[in-house]
UniProtKB/TrEMBL annotation:
Keywords: Acyltransferase, Transferase. It is an enzyme of class 2 (transferase). Its EC number is 2.3.1.4. Belongs to the acetyltransferase family. GNA1 subfamily. One of its GO terms (molecular function) is glucosamine 6-phosphate N-acetyltransferase activity. Residues 18-170 form the N-acetyltransferase domain. This is Glucosamine 6-phosphate N-acetyltransferase. It catalyses: D-glucosamine 6-phosphate + acetyl-CoA = N-acetyl-D-glucosamine 6-phosphate + CoA + H(+). The keyword Thylakoid does not apply. It comes from the Eukaryota. GO terms for biological process: UDP-N-acetylglucosamine biosynthetic process.
Length: 170
């Protein structure tokens, strides 16, 4: 099964009921998009578009999505993505951006959120990022502080409604 990135960067964890691994192309059928729907509006992505986007992400070498698979059901119950950004500053270093952190409602309270962030921190360290950053709501600040992150500056955004739901020209 094609994985988004090489898996030696992910340790298996101590809970035998959860398998930690990179996102795989077959996770389309394991509830990955449904899980993302608990974070925002559920994405409607046909299989062909999923496969095309997965391959773009994989070939870029910049995407590292870690998932927790419930061994008993085969469903994805937690995930988060690290996106590596090359920089000219810091000796042409790299920054890791955390995106799409979500734990399934039925699997909360098992420290999966903390563990998925730990996995991303390990991956970021392994690929040479000098820092890991993320944007979050005020409601989630305490959780991320428990994960070892600190509040630093401020997030701002501008949205382009005309591009909502449209494929990027990348």
């Amino acid at each position: 099964m094609a994985a988004l990135f090489d898996s030696p960067k992910i340790h298996p964890g101590s809970d035998p009921s959860i398998k930690w691994r990179p996102l795989q192309i077959g996770d389309y059928d394991r509830g990955y998009l449904r899980l993302l729907g608990q974070l925002t509006k559920a994405p409607e992505v046909p299989l062909s578009l999923w496969e095309e986007t997965f391959q773009k992400m994989r070939s870029s070498g910049l995407y590292f999505t870690v998932v927790a698979e419930d061994v008993s059901t085969g469903k994805i119950v937690a995930c988060a993505t690290l996106l590596a950004e090359h920089k000219f500053i810091r000796g042409c270093g790299a920054v890791g951006h955390v995106e799409d952190v979500v734990v399934d409602k039925v699997a909360r309270g098992k420290s999966l959120g903390l563990k998925v962030i730990e996995h991303l921190k390990d991956v970021a360290r392994a690929i040479g990022c000098y820092k890991l950053i993320l944007d979050c709501s005020q409601d989630n600040v305490k959780f991320y502080e428990r994960c070892g992150l600190k509040v630093k500056e401020l997030q701002m955004a501008v949205y382009f409604p005309e591009n909502e739901g449209r494929r990027p020209k990348l």
